[in-house]
Amino acid sequence: MPKHILQVDQPLFETELDRMVTQKVTQILNRMLDAEADDLTGAGRYERSDTRKAYRAGHYRRDLTVKAGKLSVKVPKLKGALFESAVIERYRRREESVEEALIEMYLAGVSTRRVDDISQALWGERMPSQTLSDQLKKVYSQIDQWRTRPLSQPYPYVFMDGVWHQRSWGGAVENVSMPVAIGVGLDGHREVVGVAEGMKEDAVSWQNFITSLIARGLTGVRLVVGDRCAGLVSTVGELLPRARYQRCMVHFMRNILSKVSRRHSRWAADALKAIFASETRQAALAKAESVATEME
């Protein structure tokens, strides 16, 4: 593990959520494209049938730029029929609602309502075949498996924070708070290890959240990084007694810069970033002393 000062320099949770949503959109589109090809050919990929109208002839890659990122889907090529996908065009028109439904699944779990929302948005009102339904169930089940997966490796460093997410119910939009934990493994890899929707940022909510992480196998925590939320600080001390608590750099910088005049805010921000970017504690203290001298 590199002995550098931990710092949060990007919205880790949003970045990871976008990555997972893009991955799931790719899986869903690929399975629906295959189902469209089966409809046009009149048979499954390797099925022998007297009603077959065309044959598969491989596939080609099509890149799409979407709200959550870039994705690449496998578009079937047919021999004996022209393949024009309606699924991709439907997705382009309903991209936001599809991705919103997937985000809801990651945050609150898979629900029949959200599954139906995605199916109707991409497949239309007609019922998908049993084969396609079974394939999509496997895709969606992976989301719940991710939410409850065992935490099988130690996470020496864990970032915890409460984030706000906008969700829609019947056309109305509301802000929902949720605790999020991002773990850093022994190899330095960062991943979202837990998220819970509909919880407040109080001691009871943090106790329930961290207890659920421990039940899934959270171990080896040496440092927790978060804001100065009293409920979080006290809960970490109670449930993770071997871990030290460090205030999040982003929250710390925001608090300092709120006290700095606009004329000096750019200089102050650059100075703080330089301090936090130091390789060692000694280098950070020396840089902080230099900045303090310059301010006099």
Automatic annotation (TrEMBL):
GO terms classed as biological process: DNA transposition
GO MF annotations in UniProt: DNA binding; transposase activity
Keywords: DNA recombination, DNA-binding, Transposable element, Transposition
Pfam families (UniProt xref): Transposase_mut
InterPro entries attached to this UniProt entry: Transposase_mutator (IPR001207)
NCBIfam families tied to this protein: transpos_IS256
Family: Belongs to the transposase mutator family.
Function: Required for the transposition of the insertion element.
Protein's UniProt name: Mutator family transposase
Organism for this UniProt entry: Bifidobacterium minimum
